[in-house]
From TrEMBL:
CDD domains: EGF_Lam, NTR_netrin-1_like. It comes from Hymenochirus boettgeri. Residues 358-407 form the Laminin EGF-like domain. Pfam families: EGF_laminin, EGF_LMN_ATRN, Laminin_N, NTR. SMART domains: C345C, EGF_Lam, LamNT. The lineage of its organism: Eukaryota, Metazoa, Chordata, Craniata, Vertebrata. Its main location: secreted. It is found in: Secreted. Transmembrane segments: none annotated. InterPro entries: Galactose-bd-like_sf, Laminin/Netrin_ECM, Laminin_N, LE_dom, LMN_ATRN_NET-like_EGF, Netrin_domain, Netrin_module_non-TIMP, TIMP-like_OB-fold. This is Netrin-1. One of its GO terms (cellular component) is extracellular region.
């Protein structure tokens, strides 16, 4: 227990020395430097800050167990303002010439009845002292209790009595008024136990037995009774903000809360704001502000969580883990592209379009996942390209989705092409197409079939050359028997000798003709009037367009 300061009718009960910390005005809404924030230094770096030291009891309502004036007596009448002594006088503004006093009812001389004062502070405060200015002789015993949960549970704060063992069951000993020389004197910031000891939401004072001195032994049942009277009840302290706020104010619901800084929140700035979980919340100290740090998510996440294991592994620097990464990103910091996407190095990682879809070809690629750095899709044998969309050199397209590109077999020239004995009348017989051949609707509509073929082999049958071809695409056909797959193409030996058409094995051609095979032979026929030219991929789009126009009835023959 503390020594009681020997001042007339004044009981000052100090708990902890006031520390010189950066402060600002709180309840009057004014700061000493309106443009400066005490929670940050002149360079904008965070530092510890605390609200102004105040009398937390001022103008607060005090619940008392007893008040005089009901019924009225000669010295106290609750109905007469001049003679009333209500509990509001405990925390009002007093001056030396205008002391107002609360007064309890009068108790019999040997009564054991106590008087209790209960003060609710409205939020957690770090209490430095409790001061009582008596208007009557001081009680023989005073007990102070505190609550840290708004009156749900009470614990003893201090006992003061000349009869400690008899009154409270405690040994008679004096309590120092300062922390000087004590092991915990300079360790408030690092001592949760000491911090809790100073913290209170409510304070209760219990008066037991009047201080009668020698008159106590001389008193009889006919002796006058006693009462307790207090003119001023003060609780000195600071609004508890854990070093993260320089002022307290009322919120929209009228509750007293800290004006939190350092990315903290809560009534006591006792937790980090959402998305500021890169390191754990800590109370600010004189050495370190312990500001809550935002998670590093590269602008791709709105939520994160704290992971203590990662925090320890990083040397206590970073423990944030991003949640629900957006914009096709993944990873603890949303710092790489998720499966099925790759990094666009021309954009910053914080860009919404930093990750591009792999777009692997459904037939040419062996999977949908590409290299997340280069974007290269895994290609099947003989397939190449970033998205595996074309055959590699030395390979040609097939009709198989399993092996879309196959090796080109060795070129075997046809006898017609190697023969130097061309008919003498070839120039009058036909004219092979030269240069770029343009395909238009008129030419398309004149033909009975338009197909893309791959020439596989050839054999001579009488005066006809029979080519085995693989039809890769059908763009027009009057006969439903002409479908994709292996088929026959018949060309007369005279047309072949005059290079009308000119054709090689293991090549792809566009074939546009107007008749079927000779006689009863199945397949297609090409002659000097047919179009047989080496295939170009650029024709695909044009031919599909002509095909759609034909279906709409645009092909009207004269």
């Amino acid at each position: 227990m503390f020594h009681l300061l020997e001042m007339p009718n004044l009981l000052l009960l100090p708990f902890f020395p006031m520390l010189p910390i950066f402060t600002s005005a709180i309840f009057n809404g004014q700061q000493q430097h309106p443009m400066a924030d005490p929670c940050y230094d002149e360079h904008g770096s965070p530092r510890r800050c605390v609200p102004e030291f105040v009398n937390a009891a001022f103008n607060k309502e005090v619940q008392v167990s007893s008040t005089c004036g009901r019924p009225a007596s000669r010295n106290c009448d609750a109905t007469d303002p001049k003679k009333s002594h209500p509990p509001t006088y405990l925390t009002d503004l007093n001056t030396a010439g205008n002391m107002t006093c609360w007064r309890s009812e009068t108790f019999p001389r040997h009564s054991t009845q106590n008087a209790t004062l209960t003060l609710s502070l409205g939020k957690k405060f770090e209490v430095t002292y409790v001061s009582l200015q008596f208007c009557s002789p001081r009680p023989e015993s005073v007990a102070i209790y505190k609550s840290m949960d708004y009156g749900k549970n009470w614990v003893p704060y201090q006992f003061y009595s000349t009869q400690c063992r008899r009154q409270y069951g405690k040994p008679n000993r004096s309590t120092p008024c300062t922390l000087d020389g004590r092991p915990s004197a300079q360790d408030l910031d690092n001592s949760p136990v000491l911090q809790d000891w100073l913290t209170a939401t409510d304070v209760r004072v219990v008066f037991s037995r009047p201080h009668l001195g020698n008159k106590d032994t001389e008193a009889t049942d006919e002796s006058p009774g006693f009462y307790y009277s207090v003119g001023e009840f003060q609780v000195g302290g600071r609004c508890k903000c854990n070093g993260h706020a320089s002022r307290c104010g009322k919120d929209k619901e009228g509750r007293l809360v800290c004006d939190c800084k350092h990315n903290t929140e809560g009534p006591e700035c006792d937790r980090c704001k959402p998305f500021h979980y890169d390191r754990p919340w800590q109370r600010a100290t004189a050495r370190e502000a312990n500001e809550c740090m935002a998670c590093t998510c590269n602008l791709h996440a709105r939520r994160c969580r704290f992971n203590m294991e990662l925090y320890k592994l990083s040397g206590r620097k970073s423990g944030g883990v991003c949640l629900n990464c957006r914009h096709n990103t993944a990873g603890r910091h949303c710092h790489y592209c998720k499966e099925g996407f790759y990094r666009d190095t021309s954009r910053a990682i914080t860009d919404r379009r930093a990750c591009k879809a792999c777009d692997c070809h459904p037939v040419g690629a062996a999977g949908k996942t590409c290299n997340q750095t280069t974007g290269q899709c895994p290609c099947k044998d003989g397939v190449t390209g970033l998205t595996c969309n074309r055959c590699a050199k030395g390979y040609q397209q097939s009709s198989s989705p399993i092996a879309p590109c196959i090796k080109i077999p060795a070129v075997v020239p046809t006898p017609a092409l190697t023969s130097t004995e061309e008919p003498a009348d070839c120039e009058q017989y036909c004219k092979p197409p030269k240069g770029n051949y343009k395909i238009n609707l008129k030419k398309y509509c004149k033909k009975d079939f338009v197909v893309q073929v791959n020439v596989l082999e050839m054999e001579m049958v009488g005066s006809w050359a029979k080519f085995t071809v693989n039809i890769l695409s059908v763009y027009k056909c009057k006969d439903d028997r002409v479908k994709r797959g292996d088929n026959l193409l018949w060309i007369h030996i005279k047309d072949l000798s005059c290079k009308c058409p000119k054709i090689l094995l293991s090549r792809r051609y566009l074939v546009m003709g107007s008749s079927e095979g000779p006689g009863e032979r199945p397949g297609l026929t090409a002659d000097k009037n047919s179009v047989v030219i080496q295939w170009r991929d650029a024709w695909t789009r044009r031919l599909r367009k002509l095909q759609r126009r034909e279906k709409k009835g645009k092909c009207l023959k004269p």
